[in-house]
Amino acid sequence: MFAFFNQFSFVVMIVFGLLVLIGLMRWRRTAWGQIMGIVLVISILTGVIWSALRPGGSSVSSLEEARTQLAAGKPVLIEFYSNY
User: Fold this and answer.
1) What is the pLDDT of residues 30-74, one digit of tens each?
2) I need a surface site. Which of 1, 8, 41, 72 has the fewest CB within 10 A?
């Protein structure tokens, strides 16, 4: 169960945030049409930002290619990240 929340923490936080936003807007007696419009806009913006900030594919396809670049004598940036 913990692995699920670890892998999908961003999605879970966004859904929780949207539910809190909907609850607050209903408490303020906002019309359902406005609420759904705002939730739709926030969801689209979140999806666009998430897609834009995801790391791209690797420029190195093998271990030998990485070793060659490291031995070339030029600075090399090595980035470690998790897709979670």
Assistant:
1) 999 999 999 999 999 999 998 888 877 788 888 899 889 889 988
2) 1
Report d(CA 30, CA 51) in Å as an integer: 30
* Alpha-carbon distances, residue 16 vs 9, 12, 77, 80 (angstroms): 10, 6, 36, 29
The per-residue pLDDT for 73 is 87
Give one DSSP letter per residue of 4-40, joined into a string.
Answer: HHHHTHHHHHHHHHHHHHHHHHHHTT--HHHHHHHHH
* Residues near 5 by beta carbon (within 8 Å), at least 6 away in sequence: 12
Q: In this structure, what DSSP letter does residue 64 have?
A: H
d(CA 26, CA 32): 8
